[in-house]
Amino acid sequence: MNDALLEVCGLTKLFRSGRGVQEISLSIGAGEIYGLFGPNGAGKTTLLKLITGLIPAAGGQVRWFGHSLEDAYETAMKRVGCVLEAGGTYGYLTARGQLEQVRRHYPNLAPSRTDEVLELTGLRPYAGERTRGFSLGMKQRLALASALLPRPSFVLLDEPTNGLDIEGILEIRGAVRRLAEEEGVAFLISSHMIGEMERVCSRAGVLLGGRLVLEGQVADLLQAYGSLEAMYLSAAGQRIREGA
Asked: pTM here?
């Protein structure tokens, strides 16, 4: 594996409800597509918010590109793109206008980059439409386009195919694969769609009860379990048997 772009060591955050994450450790290198699976409440979104600094950790460490998230936040996150929640659009702007607003924060980006991400996410036919009429799936695409605009080296996606039709899912899958293979972009994707992620991820991990209970190369997991769904069910069953 390439040198890690993201290193997480012993990351812990527990809420009063008892939910959260405990002792999470993982690393992801350039060009890897890491799929994170788990039921609602397992801690997937909490983990993504912790490693992007949106909420503080109670323990552990996060390093991006060798920089501590706690000590050098701006430097650590400079090359990271995130889609943690869809829906944040200015309804009066077109899709192109929304992306142009984002591009203003990156003065070195050429105007042609807007067209590139519109094409990459399948939004070019809708570039002139106001976003107030966009469906959830269209907003997901626009959020991904915004995240990809500054050419990040690492992208975090929380349920990126939520609300997408089959065509949209195929387009996003193709975009993720192409960026990973051709540009070495790394991805951490949280999703319930295990079957879909099986087709795109190179590594996978199962998060249950706030703990990373199983992870490995997808090729090895498929050889051992036959499918990622079977892997997940095995991990969940073992967790139940242990009384956790």
From this structure: 0.90
